[in-house]
């Protein structure tokens, strides 16, 4: 069975694509690498202001990346209101504020779960500092990823660590303003190798449920065991209205942080199909579609542009699924027919549609080419010397 999307369906897809937004991570614009080597690259931003200027280029050429997520203290500045004004001057705004609990010697045995109350207080206080950054920048979301866990059976009490975590999170949640949201990320291993304190979506969800309505789960696509059905998790969290954000990236092996849609574009499509079916693509749905990537060997701005386009293409394909035909096939128990409806949409070349939408918005139809021709890369290479190793330093 072959289906085609109706004219009305295509018009609705175009409307949804016009409204779609993707948030960029500030750290994607700095140098990063593996524990073996960080390769420097000319033109790398020297401070958070330059990272935002680079992120604004991605928005300028794609038209759908209007927010930049900050990581504290990687993006430490004296004046956050000035940073927010700088973002606005560049046509973007500050998105989520990410705390950092993984680069301080005091956190060797944990941060929010540490056995010592003094260390736990330090970790909680860091989030109060992040809430101040939210107030100064207008950000509404505090994002936590916890590196805490243990390496050896018996090293610490699994139960006690969960109790301490619940208490620490409750303190942080209580410090939020009424229009703030807390989003809590999970990861199945690394840096801890025996037990992570938030290894999976279920643990994250349980803590969010205990905190309150403004606590939601972050799904980083690279944070699952190989073979995990991520779209199932998406469907389940959306049902509970507890999907707060995505950290999109690709993985071949573990937390590879490669460009979204590069390794498994079909998985990205399946995820976006769940999003579209549940009608949570809308910007007011409460789900923040963000990238969490590092560009270790490729150029960073075009790396982000490509990633945004990959998410956009997966979204367009998901929007082109013939929902009525799919529903009919599913109800009829037509296994191959239902699968065929999905595959027809996935196999559609949506690039002409997206190019057309860009032209309609006054953008170049080919963002990669347009950026390459813009001269921006040569300009920043000439202007900036001594770029920061973003993510792991200033
Ligand atoms: C951890 O692996 C993570 O996915 C978290 O989101 C961090 O904040 C981010 O990576 C930064 O590298
Ligand atoms: Mn992440
Ligand atoms: Mn990660």
UniProtKB/TrEMBL annotation:
Q: Which InterPro entries match?
A: L-rhamnose_isomerase, Rhamnose_iso-rel, Xyl_isomerase-like_sf, Xyl_isomerase-like_TIM-brl
Where is each Xylose isomerase-like TIM barrel domain found?
60-273
Q: Where are the transmembrane segments?
A: none
The organism's place on the tree of life at top rank:
Bacteria
> Which GO MF terms does the UniProt record name?
L-rhamnose isomerase activity; metal ion binding
Q: Which GO terms describe its biological process?
A: L-lyxose metabolic process; rhamnose catabolic process
Which UniProt keywords are present, listed alphabetically? Carbohydrate metabolism, Isomerase, Manganese, Metal-binding
SUPFAM superfamilies in alphabetical order: Xylose isomerase-like
Q: Per its record, how is this protein called by name?
A: L-rhamnose isomerase/sugar isomerase
User: Whose protein is this, by species?
Assistant: Sediminihabitans luteus
């Amino acid at each position: 069975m072959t289906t085609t999307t109706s004219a009305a369906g295509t018009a609705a897809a175009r409307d949804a694509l016009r409204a779609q937004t993707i948030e960029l991570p500030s750290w994607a614009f700095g140098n990063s690498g593996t524990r073996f080597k960080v390769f420097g690259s000319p033109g790398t931003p020297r401070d958070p202001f330059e990272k935002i200027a680079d992120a604004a280029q991605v928005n300028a050429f794609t038209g759908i990346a209007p927010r930049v997520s900050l990581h504290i203290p990687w993006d430490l500045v004296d004046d956050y209101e000035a940073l927010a004004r700088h973002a606005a001057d560049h046509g973007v705004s500050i998105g989520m504020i990410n705390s950092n609990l993984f680069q301080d010697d005091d956190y060797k045995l944990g941060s929010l779960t540490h056995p010592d109350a003094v260390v736990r207080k330090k970790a909680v206080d860091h989030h109060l500092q992040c809430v101040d950054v939210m107030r100064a920048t207008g950000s509404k979301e505090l994002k936590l990823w916890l590196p805490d866990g243990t390496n050896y059976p018996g090293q610490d009490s699994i139960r006690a660590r969960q109790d301490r975590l619940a208490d620490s999170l409750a303190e942080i949640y209580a410090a939020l303003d009424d229009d703030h949201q807390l989003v809590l990320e999970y990861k199945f291993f690394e840096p801890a190798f025996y037990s992570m304190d938030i290894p999976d979506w279920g643990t994250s969800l349980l803590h969010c449920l205990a905190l309150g309505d403004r606590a939601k789960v972050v799904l980083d696509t690279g944070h699952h065991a190989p073979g995990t059905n991520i779209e199932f998790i998406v469907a389940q969290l959306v049902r509970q209205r507890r999907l707060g954000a995505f950290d999109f990236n690709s993985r071949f092996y573990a937390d590879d942080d490669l460009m979204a849609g590069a390794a498994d574009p079909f998985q990205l499509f399946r995820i976006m199909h769940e999003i579209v079916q549940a009608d949570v693509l809308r910007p007011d749905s409460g789900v923040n579609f963000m990238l969490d990537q590092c560009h270790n060997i490729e150029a960073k701005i075009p790396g982000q542009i490509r990633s945004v386009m990959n998410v956009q293409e997966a979204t367009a394909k998901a929007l082109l699924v013939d929902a009525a035909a799919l529903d009919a096939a599913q109800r009829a128990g037509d296994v191959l027919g239902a699968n065929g409806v999905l595959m027809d949409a996935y196999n559609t070349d949506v690039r002409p549609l997206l190019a057309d939408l860009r032209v309609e918005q006054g953008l170049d139809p080919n963002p990669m080419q347009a950026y390459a021709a813009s001269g921006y890369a040569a300009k920043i290479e000439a202007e900036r010397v001594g770029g920061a190793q973003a993510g792991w330093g200033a």
